Hints:
Strand order of the largest sheet: 8-9-6-7-11-10
Mean pLDDT: 81
Distance between the termini: 98 Å
Order of helices and strands: HEEHHHEEHHHHEHHHHHHHHEEEEHHEE
Number of helices: 18
Strand content: 5-15%
Shape: elongated
Helix content: 55-70%
Amino acid sequence: MASWVITFGVSLVASALLTPAVRWLALSWGVVDRPDGLRKRHPREVPLWGGIAVYLATACGLSVARLGGLARGYEFEELYAVLIAMAGFVCFIGLIDDDVRLKPRVKLLLQTCAVVPLVLAGFRVYSVVLFGNTFDLGWAGVPLTVLWLLGCINAINLLDGLDGLASVVGLTASLTLGVIADATGNRHVTAAAIVLAGALAGFLIHNRPPARIFLGDSGSMVIGVILGILGIQSTLKTSTTLSITAPLVVMTFPMFDTFLALVRRRLTGRPFDAADRQHIHHRLLDRGMGPWVVLGTIGALCAVTGIAAYAATLARSDWLAWATALTLVVLVVRLRWFGYYEWRLAMASARRAWAKARRGWELLGPRRSSSTRRQLAKLPARQVWATLVERVQAWNVTHVRLALSHEGRLRWRRAWHASHGEAEERGWAVAVSVSCPEGWTCEIRAAGIGREMPEFVSPAGLVRLLDAFASHFADHREQVMELADDEIGDVLPAWKEKGEQCRAA
Length: 505
Protein backbone atom coordinates (compact mmCIF):
# COMPACT_ATOMS: atom_id res chain seq x y z
CA MET A 1 0.00 0.00 0.00
CA ALA A 2 2.84 2.40 0.88
CA SER A 3 4.38 1.86 -2.56
CA TRP A 4 1.14 2.94 -4.24
CA VAL A 5 1.01 6.11 -2.13
CA ILE A 6 4.62 6.94 -3.03
CA THR A 7 3.97 6.36 -6.71
CA PHE A 8 0.82 8.53 -6.62
CA GLY A 9 2.64 11.29 -4.72
CA VAL A 10 5.63 11.40 -7.10
CA SER A 11 3.46 11.85 -10.19
CA LEU A 12 1.20 14.36 -8.41
CA VAL A 13 4.08 16.56 -7.31
CA ALA A 14 5.75 16.33 -10.71
CA SER A 15 2.55 17.38 -12.46
CA ALA A 16 1.82 20.21 -10.05
CA LEU A 17 5.35 21.61 -10.50
CA LEU A 18 5.58 21.11 -14.27
CA THR A 19 2.22 22.68 -15.12
CA PRO A 20 3.18 26.33 -14.38
CA ALA A 21 6.30 25.94 -16.53
CA VAL A 22 4.24 24.50 -19.38
CA ARG A 23 1.72 27.32 -18.98
CA TRP A 24 4.48 29.89 -19.38
CA LEU A 25 5.77 28.02 -22.45
CA ALA A 26 2.32 27.97 -24.11
CA LEU A 27 1.84 31.69 -23.47
CA SER A 28 5.27 32.42 -24.91
CA TRP A 29 4.46 30.49 -28.08
CA GLY A 30 0.96 31.96 -28.31
CA VAL A 31 -0.71 28.56 -28.09
CA VAL A 32 -3.92 29.65 -26.38
CA ASP A 33 -7.61 28.88 -26.60
CA ARG A 34 -9.57 32.00 -27.49
CA PRO A 35 -13.25 32.40 -26.54
CA ASP A 36 -15.75 32.62 -29.40
CA GLY A 37 -18.96 33.29 -27.48
CA LEU A 38 -20.55 30.07 -28.78
CA ARG A 39 -18.91 26.83 -27.69
CA LYS A 40 -15.95 28.49 -25.97
CA ARG A 41 -17.36 30.82 -23.34
CA HIS A 42 -14.42 31.25 -20.98
CA PRO A 43 -13.84 34.94 -20.19
CA ARG A 44 -10.24 35.18 -21.41
CA GLU A 45 -7.55 33.43 -23.42
CA VAL A 46 -6.34 30.27 -21.71
CA PRO A 47 -3.04 28.56 -22.60
CA LEU A 48 -3.07 25.01 -23.95
CA TRP A 49 -0.42 22.27 -23.99
CA GLY A 50 -1.36 21.01 -20.52
CA GLY A 51 -0.80 17.55 -21.97
CA ILE A 52 2.94 18.11 -21.81
CA ALA A 53 2.81 18.32 -18.02
CA VAL A 54 0.55 15.28 -17.77
CA TYR A 55 2.76 13.21 -20.08
CA LEU A 56 6.02 14.21 -18.40
CA ALA A 57 4.58 13.62 -14.93
CA THR A 58 3.30 10.20 -16.01
CA ALA A 59 6.69 9.31 -17.50
CA CYS A 60 8.38 10.48 -14.31
CA GLY A 61 6.06 8.42 -12.10
CA LEU A 62 6.49 5.31 -14.26
CA SER A 63 10.27 5.71 -14.21
CA VAL A 64 10.34 6.06 -10.43
CA ALA A 65 8.15 2.98 -10.05
CA ARG A 66 10.42 1.07 -12.41
CA LEU A 67 13.78 2.17 -11.03
CA GLY A 68 12.68 2.21 -7.40
CA GLY A 69 11.43 -1.34 -7.53
CA LEU A 70 7.82 -0.37 -6.77
CA ALA A 71 6.73 -2.37 -9.83
CA ARG A 72 8.75 -5.30 -11.11
CA GLY A 73 8.57 -7.95 -13.79
CA TYR A 74 8.67 -8.17 -17.55
CA GLU A 75 4.95 -7.30 -17.72
CA PHE A 76 5.58 -3.87 -16.23
CA GLU A 77 8.64 -3.40 -18.44
CA GLU A 78 6.53 -4.09 -21.50
CA LEU A 79 3.70 -1.85 -20.32
CA TYR A 80 6.19 0.88 -19.43
CA ALA A 81 7.64 0.89 -22.94
CA VAL A 82 4.19 0.86 -24.59
CA LEU A 83 2.85 3.73 -22.48
CA ILE A 84 5.93 5.91 -22.94
CA ALA A 85 5.96 5.38 -26.71
CA MET A 86 2.24 5.58 -27.41
CA ALA A 87 1.47 8.45 -25.07
CA GLY A 88 4.47 10.35 -26.40
CA PHE A 89 3.37 9.89 -30.00
CA VAL A 90 -0.23 11.02 -29.47
CA CYS A 91 0.97 13.89 -27.27
CA PHE A 92 3.12 15.10 -30.16
CA ILE A 93 0.12 14.91 -32.50
CA GLY A 94 -1.91 16.86 -29.97
CA LEU A 95 0.77 19.54 -29.65
CA ILE A 96 0.64 20.13 -33.39
CA ASP A 97 -3.15 20.21 -33.35
CA ASP A 98 -3.24 22.68 -30.47
CA ASP A 99 -0.97 25.01 -32.44
CA VAL A 100 -2.07 24.74 -36.08
CA ARG A 101 -5.58 23.18 -35.71
CA LEU A 102 -5.38 20.02 -37.81
CA LYS A 103 -8.44 18.98 -39.76
CA PRO A 104 -10.37 16.29 -37.86
CA ARG A 105 -9.84 13.71 -40.59
CA VAL A 106 -6.11 14.38 -40.67
CA LYS A 107 -5.98 14.07 -36.89
CA LEU A 108 -7.87 10.77 -37.02
CA LEU A 109 -5.47 9.49 -39.66
CA LEU A 110 -2.48 10.38 -37.48
CA GLN A 111 -4.12 8.72 -34.48
CA THR A 112 -4.63 5.59 -36.54
CA CYS A 113 -1.00 5.67 -37.66
CA ALA A 114 0.02 5.84 -34.01
CA VAL A 115 -2.18 2.91 -32.95
CA VAL A 116 -1.92 0.43 -35.82
CA PRO A 117 1.83 -0.41 -35.56
CA LEU A 118 1.47 -1.26 -31.88
CA VAL A 119 -1.53 -3.51 -32.56
CA LEU A 120 0.17 -5.26 -35.46
CA ALA A 121 3.21 -5.83 -33.25
CA GLY A 122 1.06 -8.06 -31.05
CA PHE A 123 -0.47 -5.69 -28.49
CA ARG A 124 -4.05 -6.68 -29.23
CA VAL A 125 -6.94 -8.71 -27.90
CA TYR A 126 -7.08 -12.28 -29.17
CA SER A 127 -10.23 -13.37 -27.33
CA VAL A 128 -12.81 -11.82 -25.02
CA VAL A 129 -14.95 -13.10 -22.17
CA LEU A 130 -18.53 -11.83 -21.96
CA PHE A 131 -21.26 -13.23 -19.69
CA GLY A 132 -19.10 -16.26 -18.98
CA ASN A 133 -18.56 -17.11 -22.65
CA THR A 134 -15.19 -16.89 -24.38
CA PHE A 135 -15.11 -15.64 -27.96
CA ASP A 136 -12.01 -16.13 -30.08
CA LEU A 137 -11.49 -13.08 -32.28
CA GLY A 138 -8.63 -14.22 -34.47
CA TRP A 139 -7.55 -11.48 -36.83
CA ALA A 140 -10.75 -9.60 -36.05
CA GLY A 141 -8.97 -8.63 -32.84
CA VAL A 142 -6.78 -6.22 -34.83
CA PRO A 143 -9.53 -3.85 -36.03
CA LEU A 144 -11.44 -4.19 -32.76
CA THR A 145 -8.38 -3.22 -30.72
CA VAL A 146 -7.71 -0.29 -33.05
CA LEU A 147 -11.32 0.87 -32.73
CA TRP A 148 -11.18 0.56 -28.95
CA LEU A 149 -8.04 2.68 -28.67
CA LEU A 150 -9.31 5.28 -31.15
CA GLY A 151 -12.64 5.34 -29.33
CA CYS A 152 -10.98 6.01 -25.97
CA ILE A 153 -8.76 8.73 -27.44
CA ASN A 154 -11.62 10.59 -29.06
CA ALA A 155 -14.11 9.99 -26.24
CA ILE A 156 -11.92 11.90 -23.79
CA ASN A 157 -11.11 14.45 -26.50
CA LEU A 158 -14.80 15.19 -27.15
CA LEU A 159 -15.54 15.31 -23.43
CA ASP A 160 -12.84 17.90 -22.80
CA GLY A 161 -15.11 20.94 -23.05
CA LEU A 162 -15.32 22.13 -19.45
CA ASP A 163 -12.69 23.21 -16.94
CA GLY A 164 -11.36 20.13 -15.18
CA LEU A 165 -13.85 17.69 -16.75
CA ALA A 166 -11.43 15.48 -18.69
CA SER A 167 -9.11 15.48 -15.67
CA VAL A 168 -11.90 14.37 -13.32
CA VAL A 169 -13.17 11.67 -15.70
CA GLY A 170 -9.63 10.43 -16.36
CA LEU A 171 -8.81 10.44 -12.64
CA THR A 172 -11.95 8.47 -11.79
CA ALA A 173 -11.46 5.96 -14.60
CA SER A 174 -7.77 5.39 -13.90
CA LEU A 175 -8.35 4.77 -10.18
CA THR A 176 -11.17 2.37 -11.01
CA LEU A 177 -9.08 0.45 -13.54
CA GLY A 178 -6.23 0.34 -11.03
CA VAL A 179 -8.43 -1.17 -8.32
CA ILE A 180 -9.90 -3.69 -10.77
CA ALA A 181 -6.42 -4.63 -11.98
CA ASP A 182 -5.30 -5.20 -8.41
CA ALA A 183 -8.30 -7.46 -7.82
CA THR A 184 -7.51 -9.52 -10.92
CA GLY A 185 -3.81 -9.84 -10.08
CA ASN A 186 -2.53 -7.43 -12.75
CA ARG A 187 -0.53 -5.31 -10.32
CA HIS A 188 1.67 -3.85 -13.06
CA VAL A 189 -1.48 -2.20 -14.46
CA THR A 190 -2.35 -0.93 -10.98
CA ALA A 191 1.00 0.84 -10.77
CA ALA A 192 0.52 2.54 -14.15
CA ALA A 193 -3.07 3.54 -13.30
CA ILE A 194 -2.00 5.11 -10.02
CA VAL A 195 0.73 7.05 -11.81
CA LEU A 196 -1.80 8.48 -14.28
CA ALA A 197 -4.20 9.31 -11.46
CA GLY A 198 -1.46 11.20 -9.61
CA ALA A 199 -0.51 13.15 -12.74
CA LEU A 200 -4.13 14.16 -13.31
CA ALA A 201 -4.62 15.11 -9.66
CA GLY A 202 -1.59 17.39 -9.81
CA PHE A 203 -2.76 18.95 -13.06
CA LEU A 204 -6.29 19.43 -11.70
CA ILE A 205 -4.88 21.91 -9.18
CA HIS A 206 -4.35 24.31 -12.09
CA ASN A 207 -7.16 23.03 -14.30
CA ARG A 208 -10.08 23.32 -11.86
CA PRO A 209 -12.70 26.01 -12.58
CA PRO A 210 -11.78 28.66 -13.48
CA ALA A 211 -8.92 26.95 -15.32
CA ARG A 212 -5.54 28.64 -15.65
CA ILE A 213 -4.45 26.12 -18.30
CA PHE A 214 -6.23 23.63 -20.55
CA LEU A 215 -5.23 20.09 -21.38
CA GLY A 216 -5.65 20.72 -25.08
CA ASP A 217 -5.69 17.82 -27.50
CA SER A 218 -2.18 16.97 -26.34
CA GLY A 219 -3.57 16.14 -22.90
CA SER A 220 -6.95 14.64 -23.71
CA MET A 221 -5.39 12.29 -26.25
CA VAL A 222 -2.73 11.20 -23.76
CA ILE A 223 -5.40 10.42 -21.16
CA GLY A 224 -7.51 8.57 -23.74
CA VAL A 225 -4.76 6.35 -25.08
CA ILE A 226 -3.46 5.45 -21.60
CA LEU A 227 -6.97 4.59 -20.41
CA GLY A 228 -7.49 2.51 -23.53
CA ILE A 229 -4.30 0.54 -22.92
CA LEU A 230 -5.00 0.13 -19.21
CA GLY A 231 -8.56 -0.99 -20.02
CA ILE A 232 -7.18 -3.81 -22.15
CA GLN A 233 -4.58 -4.82 -19.59
CA SER A 234 -6.58 -4.42 -16.37
CA THR A 235 -8.87 -7.45 -16.75
CA LEU A 236 -6.72 -9.85 -18.74
CA LYS A 237 -7.49 -13.36 -17.47
CA THR A 238 -4.58 -14.77 -19.45
CA SER A 239 -1.97 -13.11 -21.62
CA THR A 240 -4.43 -13.00 -24.52
CA THR A 241 -7.97 -13.17 -23.07
CA LEU A 242 -9.77 -10.02 -21.97
CA SER A 243 -12.85 -9.73 -19.77
CA ILE A 244 -14.46 -6.94 -21.74
CA THR A 245 -17.23 -5.88 -19.37
CA ALA A 246 -15.18 -3.87 -16.85
CA PRO A 247 -13.37 -1.51 -19.29
CA LEU A 248 -16.54 -0.88 -21.29
CA VAL A 249 -18.65 -0.13 -18.22
CA VAL A 250 -15.95 2.11 -16.73
CA MET A 251 -15.98 4.13 -19.97
CA THR A 252 -19.79 4.16 -20.22
CA PHE A 253 -20.38 7.90 -20.22
CA PRO A 254 -17.38 9.02 -22.30
CA MET A 255 -18.31 6.40 -24.91
CA PHE A 256 -22.02 7.25 -24.65
CA ASP A 257 -21.24 10.91 -25.25
CA THR A 258 -19.17 10.01 -28.32
CA PHE A 259 -21.84 7.66 -29.66
CA LEU A 260 -24.57 10.27 -29.31
CA ALA A 261 -22.37 12.88 -31.00
CA LEU A 262 -22.10 10.60 -34.04
CA VAL A 263 -25.84 9.86 -34.00
CA ARG A 264 -26.73 13.52 -33.56
CA ARG A 265 -24.59 14.68 -36.45
CA ARG A 266 -25.77 11.88 -38.68
CA LEU A 267 -29.47 12.57 -38.05
CA THR A 268 -29.11 16.34 -38.41
CA GLY A 269 -27.15 16.01 -41.65
CA ARG A 270 -24.00 17.60 -40.26
CA PRO A 271 -20.49 16.27 -40.91
CA PHE A 272 -19.19 13.81 -38.33
CA ASP A 273 -16.29 16.13 -37.54
CA ALA A 274 -18.51 19.21 -37.02
CA ALA A 275 -18.31 20.64 -33.51
CA ASP A 276 -21.48 21.46 -31.60
CA ARG A 277 -22.71 22.41 -28.15
CA GLN A 278 -24.74 19.31 -27.36
CA HIS A 279 -22.30 17.24 -25.30
CA ILE A 280 -23.22 16.11 -21.82
CA HIS A 281 -21.47 18.99 -20.05
CA HIS A 282 -23.07 21.54 -22.39
CA ARG A 283 -26.52 20.12 -21.74
CA LEU A 284 -26.05 20.23 -17.98
CA LEU A 285 -24.73 23.78 -18.14
CA ASP A 286 -27.73 24.82 -20.23
CA ARG A 287 -29.99 23.44 -17.48
CA GLY A 288 -28.57 26.02 -15.11
CA MET A 289 -25.95 23.92 -13.34
CA GLY A 290 -22.69 25.58 -12.40
CA PRO A 291 -19.29 24.23 -13.49
CA TRP A 292 -18.59 22.62 -10.14
CA VAL A 293 -22.02 20.98 -10.05
CA VAL A 294 -21.48 19.62 -13.55
CA LEU A 295 -18.07 18.28 -12.57
CA GLY A 296 -19.54 16.62 -9.51
CA THR A 297 -22.49 15.16 -11.42
CA ILE A 298 -20.45 13.64 -14.22
CA GLY A 299 -17.75 12.53 -11.80
CA ALA A 300 -20.40 10.80 -9.67
CA LEU A 301 -21.89 9.03 -12.70
CA CYS A 302 -18.45 7.77 -13.70
CA ALA A 303 -17.73 6.72 -10.11
CA VAL A 304 -20.96 4.69 -9.93
CA THR A 305 -20.20 2.85 -13.18
CA GLY A 306 -16.69 2.23 -11.88
CA ILE A 307 -17.98 0.79 -8.62
CA ALA A 308 -20.41 -1.39 -10.58
CA ALA A 309 -17.56 -2.66 -12.76
CA TYR A 310 -15.45 -3.45 -9.69
CA ALA A 311 -18.34 -5.21 -7.93
CA ALA A 312 -19.08 -7.21 -11.08
CA THR A 313 -15.44 -8.23 -11.30
CA LEU A 314 -15.42 -9.48 -7.72
CA ALA A 315 -18.80 -11.21 -8.07
CA ARG A 316 -17.97 -12.47 -11.55
CA SER A 317 -21.32 -11.20 -12.74
CA ASP A 318 -21.31 -9.20 -15.96
CA TRP A 319 -25.07 -8.67 -15.62
CA LEU A 320 -24.57 -6.53 -12.52
CA ALA A 321 -22.28 -4.11 -14.32
CA TRP A 322 -24.35 -3.85 -17.49
CA ALA A 323 -27.61 -3.46 -15.58
CA THR A 324 -26.15 -0.60 -13.53
CA ALA A 325 -24.72 1.14 -16.59
CA LEU A 326 -27.97 0.78 -18.54
CA THR A 327 -30.03 2.04 -15.60
CA LEU A 328 -27.88 5.15 -15.30
CA VAL A 329 -28.06 5.84 -19.03
CA VAL A 330 -31.85 5.48 -19.02
CA LEU A 331 -32.10 7.69 -15.93
CA VAL A 332 -29.99 10.43 -17.53
CA VAL A 333 -32.10 10.34 -20.69
CA ARG A 334 -35.34 10.19 -18.70
CA LEU A 335 -34.36 13.22 -16.62
CA ARG A 336 -33.50 14.97 -19.90
CA TRP A 337 -30.03 15.72 -18.65
CA PHE A 338 -28.45 14.23 -21.72
CA GLY A 339 -29.47 12.08 -24.66
CA TYR A 340 -33.14 13.12 -24.78
CA TYR A 341 -32.55 15.35 -27.81
CA GLU A 342 -30.87 12.49 -29.66
CA TRP A 343 -33.69 10.15 -28.60
CA ARG A 344 -36.25 12.48 -30.17
CA LEU A 345 -34.15 12.74 -33.32
CA ALA A 346 -33.93 8.94 -33.53
CA MET A 347 -37.69 8.53 -32.98
CA ALA A 348 -38.46 11.12 -35.66
CA SER A 349 -36.08 9.36 -38.04
CA ALA A 350 -37.69 6.00 -37.25
CA ARG A 351 -41.16 7.41 -37.94
CA ARG A 352 -39.99 8.79 -41.28
CA ALA A 353 -38.41 5.45 -42.17
CA TRP A 354 -41.58 3.61 -41.21
CA ALA A 355 -43.71 5.98 -43.28
CA LYS A 356 -41.36 5.52 -46.21
CA ALA A 357 -41.48 1.74 -45.82
CA ARG A 358 -45.26 1.76 -45.67
CA ARG A 359 -45.40 3.90 -48.78
CA GLY A 360 -43.02 1.52 -50.50
CA TRP A 361 -45.20 -1.41 -49.49
CA GLU A 362 -48.25 0.36 -50.84
CA LEU A 363 -46.47 1.14 -54.09
CA LEU A 364 -45.56 -2.52 -54.45
CA GLY A 365 -49.15 -3.44 -53.81
CA PRO A 366 -50.43 -6.51 -51.99
CA ARG A 367 -48.22 -9.50 -52.67
CA ARG A 368 -50.69 -11.99 -51.25
CA SER A 369 -54.01 -11.19 -52.82
CA SER A 370 -55.75 -14.00 -50.94
CA SER A 371 -54.80 -12.43 -47.60
CA THR A 372 -55.88 -9.03 -48.88
CA ARG A 373 -59.26 -10.39 -50.02
CA ARG A 374 -59.85 -11.89 -46.58
CA GLN A 375 -59.24 -8.50 -45.02
CA LEU A 376 -61.51 -6.74 -47.54
CA ALA A 377 -64.31 -9.27 -46.96
CA LYS A 378 -64.74 -7.90 -43.45
CA LEU A 379 -65.42 -4.36 -44.69
CA PRO A 380 -68.70 -2.84 -45.96
CA ALA A 381 -69.00 -2.10 -49.68
CA ARG A 382 -68.48 1.64 -49.50
CA GLN A 383 -65.37 1.24 -47.30
CA VAL A 384 -63.88 -1.26 -49.76
CA TRP A 385 -64.46 1.19 -52.58
CA ALA A 386 -63.02 4.07 -50.55
CA THR A 387 -59.98 1.92 -49.74
CA LEU A 388 -59.43 1.17 -53.42
CA VAL A 389 -59.65 4.86 -54.32
CA GLU A 390 -57.24 5.79 -51.52
CA ARG A 391 -54.71 3.11 -52.41
CA VAL A 392 -54.53 3.78 -56.15
CA GLN A 393 -53.74 7.45 -55.58
CA ALA A 394 -50.25 6.41 -54.51
CA TRP A 395 -49.67 5.76 -58.24
CA ASN A 396 -50.96 9.22 -59.23
CA VAL A 397 -54.11 7.61 -60.57
CA THR A 398 -56.78 10.16 -61.52
CA HIS A 399 -59.53 7.85 -62.84
CA VAL A 400 -60.88 4.52 -61.61
CA ARG A 401 -63.71 2.50 -63.13
CA LEU A 402 -65.24 -0.68 -61.74
CA ALA A 403 -67.41 -2.71 -64.12
CA LEU A 404 -69.33 -5.93 -63.42
CA SER A 405 -70.54 -7.91 -66.45
CA HIS A 406 -72.57 -11.08 -66.88
CA GLU A 407 -72.03 -13.17 -70.02
CA GLY A 408 -70.59 -10.15 -71.81
CA ARG A 409 -73.33 -7.75 -70.79
CA LEU A 410 -72.43 -4.80 -68.56
CA ARG A 411 -74.67 -4.94 -65.47
CA TRP A 412 -73.18 -2.53 -62.90
CA ARG A 413 -70.57 0.18 -63.03
CA ARG A 414 -68.93 2.55 -60.57
CA ALA A 415 -66.47 5.34 -61.46
CA TRP A 416 -64.33 7.92 -59.71
CA HIS A 417 -62.12 10.70 -60.95
CA ALA A 418 -60.01 13.24 -59.13
CA SER A 419 -61.18 16.84 -59.16
CA HIS A 420 -58.05 18.53 -60.53
CA GLY A 421 -59.71 20.62 -63.18
CA GLU A 422 -57.70 19.01 -65.96
CA ALA A 423 -59.07 17.84 -69.26
CA GLU A 424 -60.67 14.45 -69.47
CA GLU A 425 -57.86 13.02 -71.58
CA ARG A 426 -56.22 9.96 -70.06
CA GLY A 427 -52.62 9.47 -70.92
CA TRP A 428 -52.02 5.99 -69.52
CA ALA A 429 -54.22 3.21 -68.21
CA VAL A 430 -53.98 -0.16 -66.50
CA ALA A 431 -56.85 -2.64 -66.52
CA VAL A 432 -57.38 -5.94 -64.72
CA SER A 433 -60.20 -8.36 -65.44
CA VAL A 434 -61.15 -11.31 -63.22
CA SER A 435 -63.70 -13.95 -64.24
CA CYS A 436 -65.63 -16.22 -61.91
CA PRO A 437 -68.18 -19.04 -62.27
CA GLU A 438 -71.66 -18.47 -63.65
CA GLY A 439 -70.36 -16.12 -66.34
CA TRP A 440 -69.58 -13.10 -64.18
CA THR A 441 -66.59 -10.83 -64.90
CA CYS A 442 -65.23 -7.93 -62.83
CA GLU A 443 -62.96 -5.36 -64.45
CA ILE A 444 -61.14 -2.50 -62.74
CA ARG A 445 -59.48 0.12 -64.89
CA ALA A 446 -57.12 2.82 -63.49
CA ALA A 447 -55.80 5.71 -65.55
CA GLY A 448 -53.70 8.79 -65.10
CA ILE A 449 -53.06 12.01 -66.98
CA GLY A 450 -49.81 12.21 -68.90
CA ARG A 451 -48.09 10.51 -71.77
CA GLU A 452 -46.71 7.72 -69.63
CA MET A 453 -46.70 6.39 -66.08
CA PRO A 454 -44.29 8.30 -63.81
CA GLU A 455 -40.90 6.65 -63.27
CA PHE A 456 -41.22 6.40 -59.50
CA VAL A 457 -44.33 4.19 -59.55
CA SER A 458 -44.45 0.44 -60.01
CA PRO A 459 -46.84 -0.74 -62.76
CA ALA A 460 -46.54 -4.31 -61.51
CA GLY A 461 -47.53 -3.21 -58.01
CA LEU A 462 -50.57 -1.37 -59.34
CA VAL A 463 -51.62 -4.45 -61.31
CA ARG A 464 -51.35 -6.59 -58.16
CA LEU A 465 -53.40 -4.07 -56.23
CA LEU A 466 -56.15 -3.93 -58.87
CA ASP A 467 -56.14 -7.71 -59.16
CA ALA A 468 -56.76 -8.09 -55.43
CA PHE A 469 -59.73 -5.71 -55.47
CA ALA A 470 -61.13 -7.14 -58.71
CA SER A 471 -60.97 -10.66 -57.25
CA HIS A 472 -62.74 -9.41 -54.14
CA PHE A 473 -65.55 -7.74 -56.06
CA ALA A 474 -65.90 -10.80 -58.31
CA ASP A 475 -66.37 -13.00 -55.25
CA HIS A 476 -68.65 -10.45 -53.54
CA ARG A 477 -70.84 -9.24 -56.37
CA GLU A 478 -73.47 -8.07 -53.92
CA GLN A 479 -71.08 -5.32 -52.82
CA VAL A 480 -70.92 -3.95 -56.37
CA MET A 481 -74.70 -3.94 -56.44
CA GLU A 482 -74.73 -1.99 -53.17
CA LEU A 483 -72.45 0.64 -54.67
CA ALA A 484 -74.95 1.39 -57.48
CA ASP A 485 -78.62 2.30 -57.06
CA ASP A 486 -79.77 0.31 -60.08
CA GLU A 487 -78.61 -1.68 -63.07
CA ILE A 488 -76.90 -0.16 -66.11
CA GLY A 489 -79.30 1.61 -68.37
CA ASP A 490 -81.05 3.70 -65.76
CA VAL A 491 -80.14 7.31 -65.26
CA LEU A 492 -78.53 7.68 -61.85
CA PRO A 493 -77.65 10.88 -59.97
CA ALA A 494 -74.07 11.88 -59.15
CA TRP A 495 -72.84 12.72 -55.67
CA LYS A 496 -69.67 13.69 -53.81
CA GLU A 497 -68.03 11.90 -50.94
CA LYS A 498 -65.17 13.15 -48.77
CA GLY A 499 -63.97 15.64 -51.31
CA GLU A 500 -63.95 13.05 -54.12
CA GLN A 501 -66.31 13.29 -57.09
CA CYS A 502 -68.00 9.93 -57.55
CA ARG A 503 -70.31 9.02 -60.40
CA ALA A 504 -72.64 6.07 -60.78
CA ALA A 505 -74.25 5.25 -64.11
